[in-house]
Design brief:
binds zinc ion; binds adenosine monophosphate; Rossmann fold; globular; 15 helices; Isoleucyl-tRNA Synthetase, Domain 1; alpha/beta
């Protein structure tokens, strides 16, 4: 397939090595808060890339997506919450897993936490290797990477070497391009911060070090095939990952660098620091389903900014409804027979879909192909031209589209779910019966009306109360 590589600023042919396995690393969530749908734009686009490689191209995929559970932000968050770091980050990881499931993200092969024992050891080893190779120095108890020891530093982010100040340092995990400086590998911990004595002097890993160490530990000999994340990670995070990995191993780190553009709101990046974020629970409370979020976030090309509005989420709901209505309608076709013309149209759509996805993941064009096919097949049903013999081939095509996009079956599974969890419905039925026994009829009616407003109807009969979907 053709895939845009940030390293060369061009589209290139992508294929994995001779073992047919794509080794891919994705920078995962920093777990100091629940992930927002901006974060999930990146994760969903990478999931679509993963599915394309697996299901359309038939490669094996080994993907690592980490949790950044020690950095400036998680440490501040844990301190504020009065919790130890691991316990504090644990609940954000659990939320991530819930949201990822709701959004139909395939489980990746490895999802390490930076503070896992084996990863911390890998980080310490990496620091020692960089020390040995002459790329580091210690200042005020922290170990820094000396960027002047790497002539190619700045290649990914296209840095201007003129502006770099030799010897100047930065301690923060994130900083601007204009502040390209010697960056911290291993930070001296303040007295109330977590510290590990795996390196001398003891301290904690810098954010950039974590990803290099986990990628090299879990994906084997560099270069790996693909390293992915949002565009905000190009500098400094990925630039520094390259510096650390290449200066330690003497080999290129990753063949392809894939970056997903921002989800924006009113011309600004959706981000926690700007306070313009929405999470999956925020969206669900407003009556939208996770499948619509997935659809919206994958519908635009991943290298273009996408402006989030509630209206666009409504349109995503509507588009998905049209698709799933069509799939249901397909089950009602009664006319016998099959037509060569329908099979040809379906075959052409499959090829066009595959071409679009292999053209640097052109999801917008691929969805266009799907909708054009739906339109044409709906007219065929209306005109009595489509027979039961055509249906299996059509279903096969939609299954193939869905394996790659991961959104139709997600929607159908949501449709099968009652709008209120079954345990909650049963508990409310008991509460209502209790209220009626106590002759608190207003309270009993309120329970029934609240459930009806949420899409669940109660019916009283001789055998007790039963519920059904509205
Ligand atoms: P973080 O938790 O800040 O490390 O971010 C996790 C992932 O989400 C990274 O790959 C970021 O680049 C990505 N990301 C953050 N904000 C956005 C956004 N508004 N749109 C797209 N991706 C984002
Ligand atoms: Zn990373």
């Amino acid at each position: 397939m053709r895939l845009y590589n940030t390293l060369t600023r061009s589209e290139e042919n992508f294929a994995p090595g001779p073992d047919n396995t794509v080794r891919m690393y994705t920078c995962g969530l920093t777990v100091y808060a629940r992930g927002h749908i901006g974060n999930f734009r990146t994760f969903i686009c990478v999931d679509v890339l993963r599915r394309t490689l697996k299901y359309l191209l038939g490669y094996r995929v080994k993907q690592v997506m980490n949790f950044t559970d020690v950095d400036d932000r998680t440490i501040i968050g844990a301190k504020k919450a009065g919790m130890d770091l691991r316990t504090y980050t644990e609940r954000h990881i659990a939320d991530f897993r819930d949201d990822a499931r709701a959004l139909g993200l395939e489980e990746v092969e490895e999802s390490p936490r930076a503070t896992d024992e084996a990863n911390l050891h890998a980080m310490a080893d990496l620091v020692r290797l960089l020390e040995k190779n002459g790329h580091t120095y210690v200042s005020d108890g922290s170990i820094y990477f000396k960027i002047s020891t790497m002539p190619r530093y700045g290649r990914l982010a296209h840095l201007d070497h003129e502006g770099m100040k030799p010897g100047a340092r930065v301690d923060a995990d994130t900083y601007a391009k204009e502040d390209a400086r010697d960056f911290v590998l291993w930070k001296a911990s303040k007295p109330d911060e977590p510290a590990w004595d795996l390196v001398d002097p003891p301290g904690r890993p810098g954010w950039h070090l974590e990803c290099s160490a986990m990628a090299l530990r879990l994906l084997g000999e560099p270069p790996i095939d693909i390293h992915a994340g949002g565009v905000d990670l190009i500098f400094p995070h990925h630039e520094n990952e390259i510096a650390q990995s290449e200066c330690a191993t003497g080999k290129p780190f990753s063949r392809f660098w894939v970056h997903v553009e921002y989800l924006i709101v009113d011309e600004q990046k959706m981000s926690k620091s700007l306070g313009n974020t929405y999470t999956i629970p925020d969206v669900v409370i407003r009556g939208y389903r996770p499948s619509a979020v997935r659809y919206l976030l994958l519908s635009a090309h991943y290298r273009k900014q996408l402006n989030f509005t509630w209206a666009s989420l409504g349109q995503a709901e509507e588009a998905l409804r049209r698709l799933t209505d069509f799939l249901v309608r397909l089950g009602t076709v009664a006319r016998e027979g099959a037509s060569g013309d329908i099979a040809a149209r379906v075959g052409q759509a499959r090829r066009d879909f595959a071409d679009a996805m292999q053209d640097d993941l052109n999801t917008a064009a691929a969805l266009g192909v799907v909708f054009e096919l739906v339109r044409s097949l709906r007219s065929a049903i209306d005109a009595g031209q489509l027979g039961t013999g055509d249906v299996p081939g059509i279903r096969q095509a939609f299954d193939e589209f869905d394996r790659v996009l991961g959104v139709f079956s997600l929607r159908l599974a949501e449709d099968d779910q009652p709008p209120v969890p079954v345990e909650e419905i049963e508990r409310l039925i008991e509460d209502r019966q209790g209220a009626r026994r106590r002759r608190e009829f207003a309270a009993a009616d309120r329970i029934r009306d609240d459930l009806a407003a949420r899409g669940v109807l109660l019916e009283d009969g001789t055998g007790g109360t039963r519920w059904k979907r509205k």
